[in-house]
Write a structure and sequence with these properties.
By secondary structure, the protein is α/β, with parallel strands linked by helices. 31% of the residues lie in helices and 16% in strands. Strand 2, helix 2 and strand 3 form a beta-alpha-beta unit. The protein is globular. The two termini are 14 Å apart.
Amino acid sequence: MFHVVLVEPEIPPNTGNIARLCLATGAHLHLVGPLGFSLDDRQLRRAGLDYWPQVQKTVWASWGEFWQPPRSTPPARRAFFLTTKATRPYHAVGFQRGDFLIFGRETRGLPEGLLAAQPAEARLTIPMLPEARSLNLATAVAIVLFEAVRQVTA
């Protein structure tokens, strides 16, 4: 239904929880390296529980490998980049099945160069009070993913 992309995730329990969200919504999880942990990490498996083997997932060595897919992959894809450095709220988008929801590292978000290369309308934020610098990655994914699911199933 959707594609959840984690660029260089660092915290295994977040990734495990996001894997569970993906399974619950039918989303495909893309892990873009380098990863800050091993896929054999006990904390990752614990957070993902027994769901981990059932999750549709692909591991990519780098952003370049992910963003430049083989020719067999359709070139047209809608992608949205979640960042605290945007002004357009996630709920202002009319999501469509197959959209890519792209999230960055827990400690630094998406790289500045990657964000700068994207059109302003593709950069989305989750509105919050200025006292909060950011949300937990799994929480942010849940907010945006379930809004996308709500829109296409309403």
